[in-house]
Amino acid sequence: MTIADIKQNAQVKMDQSIAAFKNNLTKIRTGRANPALLDTIHVEYYGNHVPLSQVANVSLLDARTISVQPWEKGMGAKIEKAIRESDLGLNPASMGDLIRVPMPPMSEERRKEMTKIVRSEGENAKIAIRNLRRDANEAVKKLVKDKEATEDDQKRTEADVQKVTDKHIAEIDALVASKEKDIMEV
């Protein structure tokens, strides 16, 4: 493995960590309705547990209501039960074929809890980025030890990897701040 490979590998893995963090953030509830909130819900469908999005159309009716339109007639009750039993604290209501999922307003205490969760997720993402930096630096040290690279190469590479790390950590901080702003918005 060359120094260029090590840098490229670190960059790609850090980008993947950011993508995973963004995905985790979509699942954290804000004051507004978001169809991605129901992505974690699985429904029993002919003996298998499948994601809600595979048995129904999930969309927004308005800023505080998600609509779930089952593709099959008999699925409404199962979908409603799955949403109610999830840990999201939602109470769906059937209106014929359509299931309305109103987003109850969050209390100030709940908003603060959610910001703590966001910060925790952000810290976990930062730890993942730092671990990738450490792995890249160790790989470069191994190249120097095996005399495949010079110590100057090592110092340059470590500085480059640190710049990439700083950029990704700043992106995580910006995402956390943005999500906290969304949560605290009434």
Automatic annotation (TrEMBL):
GO terms for biological process: cytoplasmic translational termination. It comes from the Bacteria. Residues 21-184 form the Ribosome recycling factor domain. Residues 129-167 form a coiled coil. GO terms for molecular function: ribosomal large subunit binding. Its main location: cytoplasm. Belongs to the RRF family. PANTHER family: MITOCHONDRIAL RIBOSOME RECYCLING FACTOR PSEUDO 1, RIBOSOME RECYCLING FACTOR. Responsible for the release of ribosomes from messenger RNA at the termination of protein biosynthesis. May increase the efficiency of translation by recycling ribosomes from one round of translation to another. This is Ribosome-recycling factor.
